[in-house]
Amino acid sequence: MSIPEIKINYDNKGTNLNDLYGLFFEDINHAADGGLYAEMIQNRSFEFNRIDNHTYHSLYAWENEDGTDLEERGIALRVLTDDPIHPNNVNYLKVNTSEKLVIRNRGFNQGLYLKKGEIYRISFFAKPDLLNQKIGLELQNASGEVLTHEEVKVTETNWHQYEVEVVAPKTITDGRLAVTFPAYTDIAIDMISVFPKDTFKGRKNGCRRDIAERLAAMKPKFLRFPGGCLVHDGSLNANDRDSMYRWKNTIGPIEHRPSKRNNWGYNQSLGLGYFEYFQLCEDLNTKPLPVLPAGWDPHHQRAVPIDELGPWIQDALDLIEFANGSADSTWGKIRAEMGHPEPFNLEYLGIGNEEVGKPFFDRYAYFHKAIREKYPEIKLINTAGPFAAGSEFERGWESAKEHGSDLVDEHYYQAPDWFLANHHRYDSYDPNGPKVFLGEYASQENKWWNALVEASFMIGLERNADKVDLACYAPMLCNVDYINWTPDLIWFNQEESYGSTNYDVQKLFMTRQGTQNVDWEAVDFPESECIADEGISGEFGIGGDHADIEVSNIKVYDKTTSETTEIPNASISDHDYLALGSVDNDQYTISFQFTKVGGRWDKGFHFIFGKEDDKNRYTWVLGGWQNQDCLVDSVRNGSPSVLTQSIWKVEKDRTYNCRLEVDGRKITTYIDDVEFNHIEDLPIVIKPIYTNVTFNEVTGEYDLKLVNVKDEDFIFKLDVSEIKQLSVIELSADPTVENTLDNPNQVETKEYQLDLANDQIKVPAHSVMFLQIKR
Ligand code: AHR
Question: Catalytic one among 321, 354, 392, 440?
Answer without folding.
Answer: 354
